[in-house]
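Quick start: read one record
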Amino acid sequence: MKTNLRVLLLGMGLATALALTVAPRAAASEVQIKTADGQTITGEFLGTTDGIIKVRSKYGEISIPSKDVLTLVKAPDAPAPADPKAKKDPNAVEAPAVKFPEGKDVNLIALLASRVPEPPEPTKQQRQEIFRCIRNFRDSSDKSRAKSIEILKGFGETAYPFISSDYTTVDDLEDKIQMLAAVAVPGSPYTAGIFSKTHATALTEFKRLAAADPTPPPDYPTKKERDQPNPQTGDIKAAARRVLAIEADASAAQGPFNTLFLFQVYKARYTGETDVLLHDIGHDRALMGAVAGDAGASKSEWQGNDRVILAESALPLLFKDNDDLKEIAQALLKQILPSNHPKFTASEEEWFTWWTKNKDRIEKK
């Protein structure tokens, strides 16, 4: 049976959800779908066939298993246009105009579904070898694991669906992260779904451990117990290392989708309170620049629209009162914009004027 990577990417990280029956009258209307992993997809409802809901979003046609859908409702109506005849309050003080308003995050899953091609279909022998490498990975020696990783690398995109769908629980994280070395290969843009899925599991586990109440010490600790570090602290540090290891692998694989994945991770990290174990702006800035390092390569998955999407996500951060976010944005923009862009110390107005003149040219590049 042919593996459908597009459906696999849409379903990554989705738990069993409510089954959904859609009334025929909803056809050809704008709907908003929420999935079990927190994604929100808006687009024209095309119908339901064999338990698959089809929607046409701005990224293309998307197929979503109905079991993975939590809600499907009519999309909110666009706000009514302002009344041009309405009188302005002469005493009102207008806030400075924002040239680069911050929009919603791009839906990575929807973007992947519209751009990732079907993987090559493995032969029976290839399928057996891939299964054997993955099945035996957990109980293999370090030497055997290294050999399995090289074998999986050799299969390239053919092995992606198998790697994505196995070792998916918290208890599997250590093994899964070691296996990710098979896809952390430069020039592997279609790996973003695998990294995003594993990262979500690792980050959730880190947050759970970090928020847990400290383990109370024994009433009468021995000298050995007093001298040893708290094992709970060690667990939290190990969880943080797993999160950061996945980000490093995604950076090594490069491509526009891994770039979008890391940009959204870092934007969220430095927007609010960040745990000290994950806060390393120098390290994250370097990975942000590295993951987009192939943006100028002639043979890559990068398209002009990718540069526009990422630039319009990063440009508002240049003018925030947050130095960490500025550094992440600058690291990305250096890689995806032409060299004639304004200096990063330039005003928002100057940047807006430049972007207005150059956006179309960048999009067509």
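The chain has a mean pLDDT of 85.
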